[in-house]
Q: What sequence folds into this?
């Protein structure tokens, strides 16, 4: 089921029960197209998420924590100016469309009442959040500005006259007195065909909702009763997740087979969008970082291949030395202007060796020429081996950064961006030079079953700070063996075997081996961890470690996180 008109009606009913008559205490905009308005009612704060994201547009109460950007957007400032302290007096849906209107009452600078409307239009890539002054019917601001060149019918810019979305010519199932669905039921006995025609004739019905209604209409109950029961689920929904064509979907209607049921719609959406939206935000926010890493990886892999080929070429070094020594030994046999000579190789049972000569050089100069080639390749071997080591280390480092981005939440990307700037892979934004020096985010905190605190660094800067600066030297440190991943600290000098096992599973989960089984995880006291001089961020060496073999468990991660 999509966030269609039927689901929108159910969400409006839920919001009316939860936040109607509450007051706005905070406004934030953690992402470009998403706003969170904190509404306090009955001594409880409710985080109302308004999303105009092209793929995840919705309205809900969320329990997922968000991090505010350091500099608020203009839209955020406008919302704070007008809505701070405002009372939410009405929540309603526009007909059966995917539009939710929030009506607020506040006062202007003179103390006069000022009615405002915040309209959330859930329409895919055309989704928007619009603040309207009801006294003048003027748009105060929108999260997405839409000019005349984009939409001739509606201009959504500050100061423009507000117009509601164009009315649909379809029927509204909630107000349809003609009961046209009876005619559709008579004309289309096939469930699939009936569902398609319900979508064509009634607004607010997605394909999934229409198919649910079609199946109900083909039952034994009277059609009028069926429609009444169908619409009643918007007041008493059965929030659940289910699989549709092997993809996870959500619904307000009961199903014979469900993945999971929830107490309310907002919790349902939090669970549904949690992973999908998070990955999308990371991909969107980290697109530049991912591009830089992939480009550097490609460059280093190409360099590695070239170095390996050059190292293979140095295998001829000893042959040049031998030829130089043979020429020196049998110098008396070499005649001037000779182009080649065949001599016995006393290093290889006197086998004959043909040596090319430069006619313009003397015999002694030809011998020196081979010695110089030998010395050049010999020096090159040491240089090539050093470059190979450095290139492999950089590849490991970049692969680690790539894994961290894949495992990151949006707030972690700021630390990774700062690290790449410090390491010279990214140029720092000159506009940010005047700002206060960026602080590294704190590691993620988990609680073991016995209550012991477990800290997990999510990137190299967090890892270095956690392991080398803040962790007690007697605490225990864990990391996947020879696999890029997080530094994990068990905040105990004598942790139990169970706690170490749980920490090892956290280390495996927050690593490149997240989807593997039997992952090796080293553990040792922090006192045994050292960072070599000049080493890349996150790189450490250690000794005296022991190894556990574990399989990552997402359920355990959620369980320890909730503690």
A:
């Amino acid at each position: 089921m999509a966030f269609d008109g039927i689901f929108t009606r159910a969400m409006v009913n839920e919001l009316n029960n939860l936040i109607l008559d509450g007051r706005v205490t905070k406004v934030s905009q953690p992402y470009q197209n998403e706003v969170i308005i904190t509404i306090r009612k009955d001594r409880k704060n409710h985080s109302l998420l308004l999303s105009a994201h092209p793929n995840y547009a919705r309205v809900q109460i969320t329990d997922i924590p968000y991090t505010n950007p350091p500099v608020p957007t203009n839209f955020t400032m406008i919302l704070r100016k007008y809505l701070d302290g405002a009372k939410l007096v009405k929540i309603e849906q526009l007909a059966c469309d995917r539009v939710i209107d929030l009506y607020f009452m506040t006062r202007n600078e003179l103390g006069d009442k000022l009615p405002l409307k915040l309209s959330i239009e859930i329409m895919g890539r055309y989704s928007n959040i619009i603040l309207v002054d009801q006294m003048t019917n003027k748009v105060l601001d929108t999260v997405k500005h839409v000019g005349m060149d984009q939409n001739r019918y509606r201009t959504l810019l500050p100061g423009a006259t507000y117009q509601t979305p164009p009315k649909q010519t379809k029927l509204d199932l909630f107000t349809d007195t003609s009961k046209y669905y009876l005619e559709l039921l008579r004309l289309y006995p096939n469930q699939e065909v009936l569902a398609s025609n319900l979508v064509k004739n009634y607004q607010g019905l997605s394909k999934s909702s229409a198919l649910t209604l079609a199946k109900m209409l083909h039952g034994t109950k009277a059609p009028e009763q069926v429609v009444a029961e169908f619409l009643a689920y918007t007041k008493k929904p059965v929030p659940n997740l289910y699989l549709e064509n092997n993809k996870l979907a959500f619904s307000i209607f009961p199903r014979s087979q469900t993945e999971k049921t929830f107490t309310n719609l907002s919790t349902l959406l939090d669970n549904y969008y949690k992973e999908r939206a998070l990955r999308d935000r990371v991909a969107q926010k980290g697109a530049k970082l991912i591009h830089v890493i992939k480009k550097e990886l490609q460059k280093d892999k190409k360099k590695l291949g070239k170095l390996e080929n050059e190292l293979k070429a140095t295998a001829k070094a000893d042959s040049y030395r031998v030829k130089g020594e043979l020429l020196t030994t049998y110098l008396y046999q070499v005649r001037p202007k000779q182009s080649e000579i065949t001599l016995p190789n006393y290093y290889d049972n006197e086998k004959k060796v043909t040596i090319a000569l430069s006619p313009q050089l003397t015999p002694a100069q030809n011998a020196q020429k081979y010695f110089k080639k030998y010395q050049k390749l010999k020096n090159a071997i040491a240089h090539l081996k050093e470059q190979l080591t450095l290139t492999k280390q950089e590849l490991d480092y970049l692969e680690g950064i790539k894994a961290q981005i894949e495992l990151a939440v949006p707030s972690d990307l700021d630390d990774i961006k700062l690290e790449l700037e410090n390491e010279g892979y990214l140029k720092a934004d000159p506009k940010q030079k005047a700002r206060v020096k960026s602080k590294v985010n704190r590691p993620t905190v988990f609680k073991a079953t016995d209550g012991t605190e477990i800290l997990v660094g999510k990137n190299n800067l967090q890892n270095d700070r956690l392991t080398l600066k803040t962790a007690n030297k007697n605490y225990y440190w864990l990391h996947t063996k020879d696999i890029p991943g997080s530094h994990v600290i068990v905040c105990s000098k004598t942790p139990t075997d169970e706690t170490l096992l749980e920490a090892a599973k956290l280390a495996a989960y927050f690593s490149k081996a997240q989807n593997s089984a039997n992952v090796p995880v080293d553990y040792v006291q922090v006192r045994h961890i050292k960072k070599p001089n000049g080493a890349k961020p996150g790189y450490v060496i250690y000794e005296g470690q022991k190894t556990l073999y574990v399989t990552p468990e997402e359920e355990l991660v959620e369980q320890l996180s909730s503690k």
Q: What stands out?
A: The longest strand covers residues 23-31.
